[in-house]
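user: Please review this fold.
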Amino acid sequence: MINPRKESSAAKLELANRLFFRLYQCANMLHKTGSRAVEEEGLTTQQWAVLGALSRDQAKGGMSIGDLAKYLMVSRQNLSGLISRMERDGHLAVTPDGRDRRSRLVTMTASGQHVWHVLARPKIQAYYEEILGDFSINDVTHTLHYLLKILENMQRLDADWVNGASGTEATDAETA
């Protein structure tokens, strides 16, 4: 006799494999096609993300490198090289944080503001319209909901790993 629970588990595992592979492909295509969308401005998708993060109302006074790394969910090491290049290109300024001398504050320069608001954003909007043109508002809302749910679960797993739990132990209910 076939165990429906085992069969369901195998089907879910196969679907999970497909889902995460598609997420991987989407991330790669976002980098490739998104960078093309803003390449005339000398930007990549990573630089687009930095400028977007710094353009938010919450970041008007700038952000520490640590806070920016947490917000973008990248390592400080990866962000440091990116920030250095953007500073060299005149889009960002890095200054000591007046509230904490050990911390450095990243802000957009006038050039960065111009590149973001005048040059890049219209192209990014056109990119979004091209990619999501056949999505309804409901489609976008549902996709965002499920991606946020996946992201929250990944963050929980990451926190578990950082705190010493592997996060991969199966519970008795899962193995029954």
